[in-house]
Structures are given as C-alpha cells and as structure tokens.
Amino acid sequence: MSAVRFHFDFISPWAYIAWCRVHDLIAPYGRAIEPVPVLFAALLDAHGTKGPAEVPAKRAYLAKATTRAARAAGVRFAPPPHHPFNPLLALRVAGGAFASPSERRRAVDALFAAAWGGGPGLEDPEAVSAVLDRAGFDGPARVEAAASPDAKAALRTATERAIADGIFGVPTFQVDGELFWGNDSLEDLDRFLDGADPITDDDRARWARCTPSATRPASR
C-alpha cells in the first residue's frame, strides 16, 4: 500500500496539530506516513493567495482556533517567539538524509515541538542545533548540511512537485490520488482509507460540468 504523504511547513500551527494526530489515525490501515517538507510561502505565491497570519482578522482568529483544536486533541501547544517566522533552515533539515523513517519522524517531532510545543523557535541556527542534539542527532552537522546546495534543491523540488500536484496549503495529505487539506480533513482521510468516502463518480461529473457565471473584480 502506498504511504500517506504529509506535506507540511513548520510555520503552520495546523500542520503541527495534524502531525500530532495523524499517526494514530492511520495506524489501523497499515499505512506509513511520508513527511514532505514544503515552503508554504511558495505555495501561496503559486496560487496567488495569502497565508492566514498575513490577514489581521484571520491572524486573530487563528490564535484562538488553533489553541482550541490543540487542547481538544490533547496536544501540547504554545506559540513560538515570533510568527510568521522563517522556516527554511528547519525545512531543509527535515528534508535531509536520515537512516530510517523513524529517525526522520523523531527529527520532525523535535522541530515541530520547538516551534509549537513551547520550545525556543526555529529561526536561530544555534537553537535548532540544540534541539536536534537533544533529539539524538549531531545538531551542528545537520544545520551545516541544511545550508548545502543539495538541501536547498531538495526543498525546492518537493515544493514544485506539490504545486504541480495541486497542493495549495499545509497541511495536505496525499494518498491514492486524493488530497486532503487541513487538520479538519483528518476525518475525511479516515473515511477514505476505510473505503467509506462519500464522493461518487456522479458527484465528480457534476462538479466537472459546473462553471462560474460571475467573477470578482481584481483589486485596484
């Protein structure tokens, strides 16, 4: 069976909450999780949209909604020192070489916790190095490797592939040709993996025939 590809950016609190939840959800289906770090800002640029933290009203709502969702899920949650922040270093570390899927998960766990679990944040290379050290890695070596051309190219390639696959936000789960966007899509993912997806071929055909009759004027 194919893995569930988990597209994420450490900048997203929703991605953190979903990461904490998804492993238990898919365990009964015998599926693996493949973490895929992507640059959320590049997804936004490709689709001409803004992140929720870039819209003041959404930013204010985001703080409350993510806190409620984390507490409901029993996930430890506290914002980083700054948000939005630059996630590039952590993303390149997460996309690097690891000896096993369990090692990569441990690294992603540690980096997410540093951002959203009450940790020091992910912008300071020394802080990222210390986080990785505590997780059992050679932090300085990982941080150094993340600055290499190969690490930069790997993140760029993963982001470009995500855009080509129609991914516009994080977190997005991709499995068996279907996309599920957001922490609140986990229940839909569960039903899909269980063979109980309510979408029919007729539904798909109706949406394919549905075309816009009005468009919003461009901002001036």
Features of this protein?
220 residues, alpha+beta, Glutaredoxin, 4-stranded mixed β-sheet, 4 strands, 8% strand
How do you describe this structure in short?
This protein has 220 residues and is an alpha+beta fold. Helix content is 52%, strand content 8%.
Biggest pleated-sheet summary: 4 strands, mixed
User: What number is the mean pLDDT?
Assistant: 96
Counting structural domains, the number is 1
* CATH 2nd-level architecture: 3-Layer(aba) Sandwich
Separation of the first and last Cα atoms: 49 Å
CATH fold category name:
Glutaredoxin
Would you state the CATH class? Alpha Beta
Q: How many beta strands in the DSSP annotation?
A: 4
- Count, helices: 10
Order of H and E elements: EHEHHHHHHHEEHH
CATH superfamily: Glutaredoxin
Structure overview:
This protein has ten helices and four strands, in the order βαβαααααααββαα. It has a single domain (4-201), classed as Glutaredoxin, CATH 3.40.30.10. It is 52% helix and 8% strand. The mean pLDDT is 96. The chain has helices at 13-26, 40-47, 56-73, 88-94, 101-116, 125-134, 139-146, 149-164, 186-193, 201-209; strands spanning 4-8, 33-37, 172-175, 178-181. It has a four-stranded mixed beta sheet with strand order 2-1-3-4, sandwiched between helices. By secondary structure, the chain is α+β, with helices and mostly antiparallel strands. Helix 5 crosses helix 6 and helix 6 crosses helix 7 (139-146). Strand 1 (4-8), helix 1 (13-26) and strand 2 (33-37) form a beta-alpha-beta unit.
